[in-house]
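General statements about sequence and structure are easier to judge against a single worked case. Part of our work consisted of pairing the sequence of a single chain with a tokenised description of its backbone. The amino acid sequence and the backbone structure tokens for this protein are reproduced below.

***
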Amino acid sequence: MSFSRKRLSDSVIGGPIVVGLLLLLILPNLVTSGEMVVAAQPTKAQTEPRKAAPPPPPPRPATDAAVQLLALFQREGRLVDFLREDIEPYDDNQIGAAVRTIHQSCRQVLAEHITLEPVLNGSEGDDVVVPKEFDPSAIRLTGNVSGEPPFRGALRHPGWRAAKVKLPAQPTGQDAQIVAPAEVEIP
């Protein structure tokens, strides 16, 4: 009989532990399945048609990148020096000779660091249709603009979009606002 009493006392003590373990295993499944049933029922917001969210605007370039590109144009083609100089006293032949060198150097910088693509495909003078939901930052309308889009007109300039920009890494500690360092020749 002592064997049966021991078995009975073990089951009385162990019973709550077993029930507790079963509840720990089953309760999360019950709660989860209850949530799934609630979530499976469509809400008013889910049954209404959703409008596609407009794409986020492209990130604005940092002013550091603009200054860095200007610095590249200055370093390779002396563009800033040319633009800041008063060219009135020079004749057209002198200006033309200077511009050729500046143009070649700056064009090389542009090709190396920025991949450009046209905003609108076509040649100047081609008839184009500006769609109803056009981006006014990408297409500027000129002339007699009235009414609602779509608009028909003549392409005056295809525009440019930077498809890829690859500027060199700035050296650590360098002032990003310096377009060109001052040059001092020591005798």
Notes: The CA atoms of residues 29 and 35 lie 10 Å apart. The radius of gyration is 36 Å. The longest helix spans residues 2-40.
